[in-house]
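task queued by scheduler; priority normal; single chain, no ligands, no partner chains; default sampling; output format set to structure tokens
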Amino acid sequence: MSQKSSSEATTILNLENTAIPLSRDDELLEALAACKDRLFAVIRDSREEVLLAALRNPSLDVQHLLALLKRRELGSIISAIYAGKHLVEAYAVKFALVAHPDTPSHIAQTLLPLLYIFDLLKLCQIPGVSADIRLAAERKIVQQIPTQPLGNKLTLARRGTAGILEALLRGGVQNVLEACLANPHLKEGSLHQFLASSHATAEAVSAVARNSRWRSRSNIRLSILRNPRTPLVWYTLFLPGLPDATVRDLLLSLRLTSAQKELVRQSRTLSRS
């Protein structure tokens, strides 16, 4: 082969291996008509007009939408997906829209009631979910707690947020209470409030008093001692070593039973002898 022929062959080969850039119209046409596999590459484009065209592609399915909704800074694309009602028929797309940080609040709030309770719980825990959506999801869970089966309540007690735990404590289910006590999200203030309420039965108070995480906290011990339903055994265990001022406050309490106050008086007498 001559040098000239060799050079021409090399030029042709290079042209065949070089991708010719598509015009704007060609790119939009491709977005509208690409096959399923090619469409995944199209939705990686950052230009709004290309993505809006891709939403009108007949080959677009749930997997394409979920791949698209993993991206950030989608702007008006979110509203366009929601406006195309057929695009949000799939449950997974509804959840992805609510969880997306770019979704306008009014859209997320509209879709929120359609989600299952444990997906609502996920929204409370996913980084990037806005504070108002997280709070709305928590409230929705709290509203549903009374009608949930025991298994769901136990799962919520193990994984729930502080607000969910407060609601579960008020339910008065003993093993649910014990699961709440082991949840790191439970706040001391919430437990103090529960112990001061009418929801704290003798069994519930005893569960708190037995719990190694909570029984050593002085404020929780005082909350236990101020509850009129607290079994007397906890006075025997918790009264020794209390400051005189605290003992006097307990004696002045109008909530304690006569038997409880008698144990408080005895402890005061022993501390003076």
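post-processing summary
- The radius of gyration is 32 Å.
- Residues 258-272 form the longest helix (15 residues).
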